[in-house]
Every structure is written in C-alpha cells, then in structure tokens.
Amino acid sequence: MTEAEARARIGADVSRETLERLDLYHALLLKWQKTVNLVARTTVSEAWSRHFLDSVQVFAAAPVHSGPWLDIGSGGGFPGLVCAIVAHEKAPDLTFSLVDSDVRKCSFLREVARQTGVSVTVTTARVEVLPPQNAAIISARALAPLPQLLDWAAPHLGPGGTCLFQKGANHGEELESAAAHWQMEVEILPSVTARDSVILRIRNLAHAA
What is the extent of the structural domain holding 129? Predict the structure, then answer.
C-alpha cells in the first residue's frame, strides 16, 4: 500500500476536518522526528501506512464509543493520539489519557493536541505508578509482551472494559504465555496494514485460578 493509498483510505472514512488534523499531525511528526526518536527511522517515509492507518484501525475495533480511553506507552501517539483525533469527530463522549515515561515524547503529544485542537490528557510517568484509571478501553502498540501488558493494564481496566493490543507474528505464542496467568476472552482481528499482524481485543480479564 502506497502512502497516498493509505491516506486516501483514511480520508474515505473521516471528515475533511479530521483529515486536515491528521495532515498537521503528520507534518509535526516529520519536524520533531529530526530531534526526537518518535518512530523507527526506517518507517518515517511510510508514516501514513505504518502508523496512521495502523492506528485508525484500532479506533474501528473499539466496542464502545464513550468513557475513558487509556493509551499506555504512547510514544509518538500511535495509536492513542490518532484515535483521539478520529474520536473528536466520531465519538466525542470518549476521553483520552496518554501515558509515556519519555518527557520529550510527551511534549510532542501535547503540541500535536494543542495544534489540532483535540482534548487529551498527557501524563509523563510509567503506567505502574498511575492510580487506577477505570478505563473502558486500554490500547498499546509495540510496548511489551502480552503477559507484561496484561499486568500493567489490569489495575486500570474498568468493569466490562476492553484491551486493544496490536501484535505481530508472535501473537499466538504470547497468548499461550499469558494463558498461564490470565483468564480472558480474546478476539483476533486481522490487521489491514500487515499480513502477519493482528489486533487482540480482550475482554473479561481476570487472574487465572
């Protein structure tokens, strides 16, 4: 998929105003990437297909469109800030909290939110030290193996909440490892951007007996 095709695919499902916000985000990403390592350098030229479209599909996988959304290890804002921009149009009853331990990345996230006019809360901290967030949705991308992600997410997941975790070709092995410590309902959703990648939609998370 070319960059133009990825952008057009997003544009077919959002308003002109939302696409303009994403264009501004893209421009800021290119500017800040010169001094802050927001995404892997090899993927900067493929930002629309590798990062923006990859994040938009997470919003599409969300089972609810209201309540708190917690994005952990937000980095350059994928998927959390992209989802917040889409939700500004499509799901205004969602509230977004982005968490990352890197001060410079958090500064970038705040600047994108300010310039796009999208309301998000950005916290510079490790997720382990946050008070419980009672989130309806928790998202994460390329952050940690699934067992570790579930350890981090569980204290912050509200009743009936859902985890949306983007995973690669080893997702089956990660699910097996996690099953030793967790009970959960899992849906495996194919990624639209990479053949061997998926979104894990996880509900009813509980410690294994």
Answer: 3-207
